[in-house]
Amino acid sequence: MNKRERVMAAIKGAPVDRVPFSLWLHNFAQEHSAEALAAETLRLYAAYDWDFLKPQSRPYCFTELWGQTFQRSYEKATFPVVTHYAVQNAADIGKLEDVDVTAGALAEQIEACQLVRASVGKDVPIIGTIFSPIMTAMFMMDDGPAQVRRLMTENPDALEQGLATIARAFAQHSRACVEAGLDGIFYATTAATKSQMSPEEFNRFQAPFDKQILEAASAAPFNIVHMCGDNILADSFVDYPVDVFSWATTPGNPSLTEMHNKTGRAVLGGLPGKPAMGSISVEALREHAKASLAEMQGRYHLLGPDCSINQDTSDDVMRAVTDIAQEAVLS
Question: Are the CB atoms for 25 and 308 separated by under 8 Å?
Fold first, then answer.
C-alpha cells in the first residue's frame, strides 16, 4: 500500500499492510514563515518516513488575526513570548470583530502545507492544525484559562459572542484548507477537561462552535479531533463529525478500544507525548507501541503520540518509532 491507501484504509477499519504512523513536534525557530515551516516538515519527513504529515503551526498564528503580537523565538525549544495580548480586558472578548482569513497568519499556514504537498506529492496525506475557539480565547488574554472560566459564569454572553466571531473565522479557514487540497484538519482543544468545564458548559461554550468549524471541513476524508489533557469529557465528543479521535491514554481518559467502541471511528494514539517522550528509552517505547498495536489488532488505528512530542526527543527514539511501525507488518 502507499501512504494514502494505508491511512484511508485505517480510517475505515479496512485491512492494512501495517498500521500508519506519524509524529509531530514544534521547532519554534522554524515556525515564523511558510517556507521555514515547510522546510522543517520536509526535513522530518525525509528523516523518519511518516505516513501522514501535520505541519506544526506556531502557537499564536490563530490569535494573530486579532492583533496579538509576540517576540519571535530563535531557539528550537523556546516558546515565543507574547508582547501584546489580543484581549486586554476579558469582557472585551465580546467585542472581537470579523477578520479576513485569506491573508496573514492562517493563509501562511495553508501556503506551508501547499509547499509540502508540492514536494511530497499526492500520495502523502497532509492535515492542517486548527485550534478550537475556546482554546484560542484562552491564548488571547493573560492568565487566559482562568479568565475564560470566570467569563463562563460572570459574563457568558460576552464569551459566547467572542467565540462566535472566532468560529466564523475558523470555519472560513477550515473550508479554505479543504479547497487548498489538504486532506483534513487536526482540530485541537485544551479546554474540554473536567477541571475546566462541566458537560453543560461544554454544550454551550465548546460544542456548537467546534461543530461549525468541523462541518466546514466535512468534504475532507481525514478530519481529526484532538482532546488534550487529563480527565477529558470524552462522552461529550462522541457525536462529533470527524473521522479520527486523538487524546492522551492516561489515567482518567479512555483507552484506545474504549474510545473506538464509544464512537465506532478510528483512533490516533498509542505513543507517549510530551513530557514522557523526552526521556523514554527505546526499549520502553517499543513495549508501549507493541501494547497499543496489539490492543487495536490492526484496525481503526493510526499510531501516534498522545500529544505533540518534546522538541529534544532523541533521534534514536524517533527512528525507533519508524522501525517499530514499519516492522509491524500485518498478515
Answer: yes
How high is the pLDDT of residue 193?
Answer: 96
Q: In which residue ranges of the chain is pLDDT below 50?
A: none
d(CA 27, CA 167): 27
What secondary structure, in 3-state letters, does 175-201 show?
A: HHHHHCCCCEEEEEECCCECCCCCHHH
CA 125 vs CA 7, 76, 303: distances in Å: 8, 25, 15
Taken in order of first residue, the domains within the chain and their CATH numbers are 3-327 (3.20.20.210)
Instruction: Give pLDDT, residue 329.
Output: 80
Amino acid (one-letter) located at 225: V
Nearest to 220 by CA among 174, 263, 266: 174
Beta strands 224-227 and 244-247, pairing class: parallel
Give the whole-angstrom CA distance, residue 90 versus residue 76.
Answer: 31
CA–centroid distance for 128 within its chain: 8
Distance CA(238)–CA(261), nearest Å, equals 10
pLDDT tens, 82-96?
A: 999 999 999 999 999
As to burial, measured by CB atoms within 10 angstroms (0-12 exposed, 13-18 middle, 19+ buried), residue 239 is exposed
pTM reported for the whole predicted model: 0.96
Position 251 scores a pLDDT of 86
What are the pLDDT digits (tens) for 166-182?
999 999 999 999 999 99
